[in-house]
């Protein structure tokens, strides 16, 4: 395995694309687990999904109407509803039986005549079925879902690594599964640092409201973290952080604040005390430059995010999101680019990530205001984040787009 830190620049910030690659390569998928279908939403398949039965498992009526044998007219007898087993005796030529959508076709039936295409008449003790005036006679196999139309038993349905969606769960149930073997969603501990943070009310007395705790919990879950992801507030005390990290059993630990070089920035000190190996120590990106990624002695990753809210968001997209995909066995998102609606000034040497909204008419990415490191107003109105290369980009230039992942596990 290639050393994930091989691309880091000694003594300098890691280029933004390399930092993302290092994060992706720093983790491997968690061990597979087998869970009931209802508990697998948001995971990914850890092994291929194969059909356990034919779908449909018998010839089925695709419409309400009559199962008919031969060209007609047909002598009517009986009724078949979904869930009923037809008799073993074949439907004789010239006979028909009333049938509901989803009901098993009786042996000997050649087609289904839709309700709107037939007319019945009473003739003596028996009823007769005719094709309605102006309607075509049913062709053999018409409105019949033949056995195995969707798949045969043993057919490969989906590959390992496929995200488990409600539709996948429905397919698995239809194919005979009660449980699935999946890669679980990683558990994340978020440790929010800062004695200046308030838990409620407006900013006051020189202190500010904690925005990252409320932001990170739902966002990390949307990016693939498990529902048992937790957020804890810690005082600015390196011993408390040391104890919290050392006692954590989470698959990924994220800290916020304390990654720069200020008087209470001690994340580096704690990482060193724990014997962790720094893979990324600063990234050439704005905002969010003083972020870090370290591997604890047991191999679990720790991401240190800056304390400024938009800078922390950049850190999540740069380091935490690739790690969550790697741990959860998720594929990388398909990259795409969108033209800019207006020019954006760039940093001379660093990549910039800025919030953008997509123009309804042109589809272009419109840069939003309020995109300073401590601001969330632009991000709250954004559709995505645009990647601005060093030196900036002109109006009309195609720039890479990062979906923020609200409401998804992208």
UniProtKB/TrEMBL annotation:
Gene3D superfamilies: MoaB/Mog-like domain, MoeA, C-terminal, domain IV, Molybdopterin biosynthesis moea protein, domain 2, Molybdopterin biosynthesis moea protein, domain 3. Belongs to the MoeA family. SUPFAM superfamilies: MoeA C-terminal domain-like (SSF63867), MoeA N-terminal region -like (SSF63882), Molybdenum cofactor biosynthesis proteins (SSF53218). This is Molybdopterin molybdenumtransferase. It comes from the Bacteria. Its cofactor is Mg(2+). Pathway: Cofactor biosynthesis; molybdopterin biosynthesis. Residues 189-326 form the MoaB/Mog domain. Residues 18-27 have a biased composition (Basic and acidic residues).
């Amino acid at each position: 395995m290639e050393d994930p830190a091989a691309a880091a620049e000694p003594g300098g910030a890691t280029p933004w694309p390399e930092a993302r690659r290092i994060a992706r390569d720093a983790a491997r998928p968690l061990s597979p687990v087998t869970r009931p279908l209802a508990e697998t939403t948001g995971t990914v398949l850890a092994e291929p999904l194969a059909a356990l039965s034919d779908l449909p498992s018998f010839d089925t009526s695709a419409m309400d109407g009559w199962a008919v044998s031969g060209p007609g007219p047909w002598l009517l007898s009986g009724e078949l509803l979904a869930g009923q087993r037809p008799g073993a005796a074949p439907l004789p030529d010239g006979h028909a039986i009333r049938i509901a959508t989803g009901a098993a076709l009786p042996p000997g039936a050649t087609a289904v005549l839709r309700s709107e295409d037939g007319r019945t008449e009473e003739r003596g003790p028996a009823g007769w079925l005719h094709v309605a005036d102006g309607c075509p006679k049913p062709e053999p196999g018409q409105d019949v879902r033949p056995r195995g139309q969707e798949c045969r038993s043993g057919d490969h349905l989906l590959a390992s690594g496929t995200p488990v969606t409600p539709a996948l769960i429905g397919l698995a149930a239809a194919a005979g599964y009660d449980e699935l073997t999946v890669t679980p969603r990683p558990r994340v501990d978020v440790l929010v640092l800062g004695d200046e943070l308030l838990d409620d009310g407006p900013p006051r007395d020189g202190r500010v409201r904690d925005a990252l705790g409320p932001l990170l919990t739902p966002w990390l879950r949307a990016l693939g973290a498990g529902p048992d992801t937790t957020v804890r507030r810690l005082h600015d005390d390196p011993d408390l952080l040391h104890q919290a990290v050392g006692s954590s059993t989470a698959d990924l630990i994220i800290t916020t604040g304390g990654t720069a070089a200020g008087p209470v920035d001690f994340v580096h000190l704690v990482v060193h005390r724990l014997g962790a190996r720094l893979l990324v120590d600063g990234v050439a990106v704005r905002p969010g430059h003083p972020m870090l990624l370290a591997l604890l002695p047991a191999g679990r990753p720790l991401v240190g995010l800056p304390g400024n809210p938009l800078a922390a968001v950049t850190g999540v997209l740069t380091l935490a999101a690739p790690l969550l995909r790697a741990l959860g066995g998720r594929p990388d998102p398909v990259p795409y680019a969108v033209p800019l609606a207006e020019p954006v000034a760039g940093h001379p040497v660093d990549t910039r990530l800025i919030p953008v909204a997509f123009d309804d008419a042109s589809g272009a990415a419109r840069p939003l205001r309020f995109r300073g490191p401590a601001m969330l107003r632009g991000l709250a109105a954004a559709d995505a984040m645009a990647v601005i290369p060093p030196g900036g980009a002109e109006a009309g230039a195609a720039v890479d787009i990062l979906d923020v992942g609200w409401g998804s596990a992208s």
